[in-house]
């Protein structure tokens, strides 16, 4: 690849996780011919080409207003993924002070910013727009790979039920992702709080359930890529001003290409309580792994409590409790009192039935998200009978001593799973 302009800076993120900046000086400074070449990036590498802000003789590491992103050998145009100026972001957040911080996640700190002046040659963001800045923690072990993963995936995704990536900022050790601001925070903020859950009547809950299903269906079938989210949970469902849901956080997501239907990993990273049996025990994941997580989330919305915080004398998880109620034809007892008066009995029973189908042990027995969408939209769907989930009971009893009430624990298992077979 050749560049022949006055000044062009290039940042190259390679697979080893290192981050270096390379500057191309004007040819008269180097005593070299005006045209020079730079090797192309390898597959899955990310290169950021940046037009210098001025034609002065001073070098600048500032990522400025004009950009082209090369991802996996493909160009992503400026309007799709602008580069934000680090200095402007620092100024807008009072140098990333705690007072501007919205929260902390696995990626790092999250800040709210109101844009006043951000001029882009193309794709200008309007003044006064509220945005969210996710600042990568320098202590994050997998941070760089996850950062690259989000850029590769979300830059190509545009859908009403997926959170929108507005841009990024890369300078030195500072790496940030810029998203649209979601004023109603995340689903868990309301769902697992006794006072705030009053805002979630059944109509709102059903709209959230259908929106999450549409978002997953888009990832699995309708997007330009086939994507497995791998970390669907209540805290990763963001809510806009009208309580419409958007799936967020694609750090753990994976792309399936061609006829690929399943993949394996020895590093199991997901949240306890949402993890499918085949993923937890064998490191296998597919679209049906997301379906399992969706089923857990659906039951949590109906019951109003986390799967991981559920404890009773007879049941070790929300899934086993829901199954017993379903099997005894007492499914209405699963409904949270805060939505019982506003719900439709027919719609509620249908959603519980769909949830039980999604959390079945076998991948073959779970529906696809396309089937889930049809079931949710149908007035009189024909639903198969779910099978009893044995995995949830077994897993919950094993992890009972490690999960405290209301706590969300993320698994990061770097060990392979050995199955014991008798002689």
TrEMBL record:
GO terms for molecular function: ATP binding; protein serine/threonine kinase activity. The keyword RNA-binding does not apply. The keyword Translocase does not apply. Keywords: ATP-binding, Disulfide bond, Glycoprotein, Kinase, Nucleotide-binding, Serine/threonine-protein kinase, Signal, Transferase. It is an enzyme of class 2 (transferase). It comes from Gossypium raimondii. It catalyses: L-seryl-[protein] + ATP = O-phospho-L-seryl-[protein] + ADP + H(+); L-threonyl-[protein] + ATP = O-phospho-L-threonyl-[protein] + ADP + H(+). Residues 96-383 form the Protein kinase domain. One of its GO terms (cellular component) is plasma membrane. It holds the Pfam family PK_Tyr_Ser-Thr. This is non-specific serine/threonine protein kinase. Its EC number is 2.7.11.1. InterPro entries: Kinase-like_dom_sf (IPR011009), Prot_kinase_dom (IPR000719), Ser-Thr/Tyr_kinase_cat_dom (IPR001245), Ser/Thr_kinase_AS (IPR008271).
């Amino acid at each position: 690849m050749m560049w022949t302009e006055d000044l062009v800076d290039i940042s190259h993120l390679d697979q080893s996780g290192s981050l270096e900046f390379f500057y191309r000086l004007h040819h008269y400074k180097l005593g070299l011919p005006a045209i020079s070449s730079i090797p192309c990036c390898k597959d899955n590498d990310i290169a950021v080409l940046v037009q210098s802000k001025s034609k002065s003789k001073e070098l600048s590491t500032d990522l400025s207003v004009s950009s082209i992103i090369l991802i996996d050998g493909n160009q992503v145009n400026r309007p799709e993924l602008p580069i934000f100026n680090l200095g402007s972001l620092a100024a807008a957040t009072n140098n990333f002070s705690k007072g501007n911080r919205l929260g902390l996640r696995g990626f790092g700190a999250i800040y709210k910013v109101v844009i006043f002046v951000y001029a882009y040659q193309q794709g200008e963001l309007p003044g006064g727009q509220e945005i969210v800045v996710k600042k990568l923690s320098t202590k994050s072990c997998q941070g760089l790979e996850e950062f690259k993963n989000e850029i590769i995936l979300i830059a190509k995704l545009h859908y009403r039920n997926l959170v929108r990536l507005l841009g990024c900022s890369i300078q030195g050790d500072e790496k940030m992702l810029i998203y649209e601001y979601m004023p109603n925070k995340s689903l868990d903020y309301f769902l697992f709080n006794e006072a705030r859950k009053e805002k979630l009547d059944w109509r709102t809950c059903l709209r959230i359930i259908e929106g999450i299903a549409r978002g997953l269906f888009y990832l699995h079938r309708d997007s330009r890529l086939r994507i497995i989210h791998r970390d669907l949970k209540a805290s990763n469902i963001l809510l806009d001003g009208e309580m419409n849901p958007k799936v967020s956080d694609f750090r753990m997501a994976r792309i399936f290409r061609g006829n690929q239907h399943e993949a394996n990993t020895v590093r199991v990273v997901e949240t306890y309580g949402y993890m499918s049996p085949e993923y937890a025990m064998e490191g296998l994941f597919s679209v049906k792994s997301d379906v399992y997580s969706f089923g857990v989330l659906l039951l949590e919305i109906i019951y109003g409590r986390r799967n991981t915080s559920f404890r009773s004398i007879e049941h070790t998880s929300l899934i086993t409790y829901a199954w017993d109620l379903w099997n005894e034809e007492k499914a209405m007892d699963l409904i949270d009192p805060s939505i019982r008066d506003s719900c439709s009995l027919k719609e509620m029973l249908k959603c519980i039935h769909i949830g039980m189908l999604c959390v079945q042990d076998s991948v073959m027995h779970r529906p696809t998200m396309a089937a889930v969408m049809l079931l949710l939209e149908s007035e009189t769907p024909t639903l198969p009978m779910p099978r009893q989930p044995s995995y949830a009971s077994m897993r919950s009893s094993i992890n009972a001593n490690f999960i405290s009430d209301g706590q969300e624990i993320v698994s990061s298992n770097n060990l392979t799973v050995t199955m014991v077979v008798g002689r």
